[in-house]
Request: fold
Amino acid sequence: MTILYSILAVLAIIIIYVVVNSYRLKKAVTNLTQEEFIKGYRKAQLIDLREPKEFEAGHILGARNIPTTQFGTRHKEIRPDLPVYLYCQNSGRSARAALSLKKKGYTQIFQLQGGFKTWTGKVKAKS
Reply:
């Protein structure tokens, strides 16, 4: 019985962690459909959080590449007074980056719902 209680306690902790983390992420970033993203990203800072090889293979026209692995040191390149449009391959990295920016005082943070893998708009690729 003790093992069962331990397993249940661990599961409860995991569930609470997931729920709290989801709530924090929702408050940090606004998810946008591709159509909504297209309407606003040209007037914002468009940041691709994927690694350089992913970026070079194809990215949204006008995007600046700040890989998640460098985000901790390069986030200062992003102006806090302008909207920030983030995307990665499938939204996981952009959600974490948004939470980091929110903690640093950024207020206008948006991400492409579903990430680059769902993007059907114009793409620039290295020739």
Helices lie at 2-28, 34-40, 52-57, 71-74, 92-103. The CA atoms of residues 76 and 101 lie 10 Å apart. The mean pLDDT is 90.
